[in-house]
Amino acid sequence: MNARRHSVVSMIVIVSLFLAPYSFAQSKQDVKANQARLVKEVRHELVMLPNYSLFDNLEFQIAGVDTVILSGQVTRPILKSEAENAIRRMERVGKVVNNIEVLPLSPQDDRLRTVAYKTIYSKPGLERYAQQAVPPIHIIVKNARITLAGAVASQMDKDLAGIAAQGISGTFGVTNNLAVDK
Description:
The chain has 182 residues and is α/β, with parallel strands linked by helices. The chain folds into two domains: 103 residues, Alpha-Beta Plaits, CATH 3.30.70; 74 residues, Histidine-containing Protein, Chain: A, CATH 3.30.1340. Helix content is 47%, strand content 23%. Strands 1, 2, 3 and 4 form a four-stranded mixed sheet that branches. Strand 1 and strand 2 form a beta hairpin. It starts with a helix and ends with a strand.
């Protein structure tokens, strides 16, 4: 009887050793799948914020399993709070780190935002982006410096938006961080 029990215990140990890598790989896949779902859900929540505009840039990272780190720049403090609250209410989120920067109030920056919007979105080939609910070219202006963020369909569109922004008088520089969709 003792030999039989020893044999059963040995079999359990052997099976456990064979299944352990499978279990580890499966749990890694589950974590990646959960993170992918969380990324999609967080992106959706941020885009749906009522005060989110093309003059704001909201970004995020997922750390670990359930921590969301918010970053970017917004023109109004309320949007920073709304973003944090929307993500905090999500079921899969355990912790929210809010590193969103509120841009300083500046009539000069407001003027540059308006001019940049009209200049970029009136260019032939770029006007189609203005027709989307939240246009994908975000115009961030801080201390008369323009940063373009978001995504466009082609390298030509990215270059065209950058050249248009560089032609705006009164700026102290343009950074073109537009991504090209693949």
